[in-house]
Design a protein that fits this description.
Length: 374
């Protein structure tokens, strides 16, 4: 098995090594955060399976490890657009799994982003998962297992991938400095999230989240400069709107990107009506908007958590490493206030899961935060 990223996934390493030693199961569910190494582990695991019984094991392993792989018995399915097409699941997995191996004794089918399968696709896959041919092994990868049907999950052996530690995230980001260290700490072990936070869209979202944090977290240098120049600094009653605008912009970007991909596929011959394209693009946009808004609230919560940490003298626990001096100047309050602010943010995140009005929930949050951290 490769050194990276499984050097940071001891439980997955032990489970997969044991499976290879005793004989792999017919179906696996690799679950864990994006960027935790699920795809690399699946490719290495598949390569070992295909090497078993091959005429030339080393050559079979080498070809299986290539990305994309030319090995005829490794089928790797990624979603085209926002979702897996049911036709692709039927043709490239369900029907193809009935064919005997072209080489060796095994065939491996990997479905990346399995949560992107519609219910129709998942239901169609059930029989194959339950009664696959003896030479077939299926590996499903997901960062959102809750989006999969329970009947799918129950037919797979779970392999859990833990969030990557900050130092591993930093190493894969390929940079150094406070900004990279901060992105790694704020990523919650998700490499893709860390990369997003370092992008222009991610920086804009974090800036909006910090506006909300600064509005009720004490005078920061930015607030002081605004006051000195006779400008009105952001207040708790208005700062939340910037966070919502950042989420809306991310949603629109995702919707446009999805529509472009779907239109290109339609031009290439994939059967989709104009209504299907519009509906799917809108769903992708709404999903991304919700994800980014939740991340924005999480980032705002990290500011209050850091204020509490600095006020308690625990600078080493700060997430926003690139704002440490600013936090020190703003953290002149009781640490319990910061902890209470974090609780309020988490409560709002739970409320948004129940599809309450985003505007009302955010405005209510700003009022509650202002009362806790004047």
């Amino acid at each position: 098995m490769p050194e990276l990223p499984l050097e940071h996934q001891p439980r997955a390493r032990v489970a997969l090594s044991a499976a290879l030693a005793t004989g792999p199961s017919h179906a696996y569910l690799f679950r864990g955060p994006r960027g935790a190494g699920k795809a690399a582990a699946a490719r290495a695991f598949a390569a070992e399976i295909l090497a078993t019984g091959a005429v030339d094991p080393d050559d079979a392993r080498r070809r299986a490890l290539l990305d994309p792989s030319p090995h005829p018995d490794l089928v790797w399915l990624q979603p085209r657009g926002a979702q897996h097409m049911v036709e692709e699941i039927r043709e490239q997995v369900i029907r193809a799994s009935s064919y005997r191996p072209f080489e060796g004794d095994k065939r491996v089918f990997v479905i990346e982003a399995a949560e992107a399968m519609k219910d129709e696709s998942q239901n169609a896959l059930l029989k194959t998962l339950e009664e696959p041919p003896e030479f077939v092994h299926l590996i499903l990868l997901t960062s959102e297992p809750a989006q999969l049907l329970e009947t799918i999950c129950s037919r797979c052996q779970p392999i859990d991938f833990a969030p990557l530690p900050p130092d591993a995230i930093e190493a894969q980001l390929g940079g150094d400095g406070a900004e990279v260290a901060t992105a790694a700490r704020l990523s919650a072990g998700d490499l893709e999230r860390a990369r997003f936070l370092l992008s222009e869209s991610g920086k804009a979202l974090r800036a909006a989240a910090l506006v909300l944090g600064r509005a009720v977290g004490g005078d920061s240098p930015d607030t002081q400069r605004a006051s000195a120049s006779a400008e009105s600094p952001p207040t708790a009653h208005t700062a939340w709107s910037q966070l919502l605008k950042a989420a809306e912009a991310a949603g629109e970007e995702a919707e446009d990107a999805t529509r472009k991909v779907l239109e290109e596929e339609a031009e290439a011959g994939v059967k989709r009506s104009a209504k299907d394209i519009t509906d799917e693009a809108k769903r992708a946009g709404r999903r991304r908007r919700t994800e980014v808004l939740d991340l924005g609230l999480e980032l705002a919560g990290s500011w209050y958590r850091d204020l509490a940490a600095v006020a308690a003298g625990a600078d080493q626990a700060v997430f926003n490493r690139d704002r440490l001096e600013e936090l020190r100047q703003a953290a002149g309050q009781d640490p319990s206030r910061g902890r209470r602010a974090v609780e309020l943010v988490e409560d709002t995140r739970r409320r948004l899961d129940l599809n309450v009005s985003e505007e009302l929930a955010l405005e209510a949050l700003s009022l509650r935060l202002a009362a806790v951290m004047p």
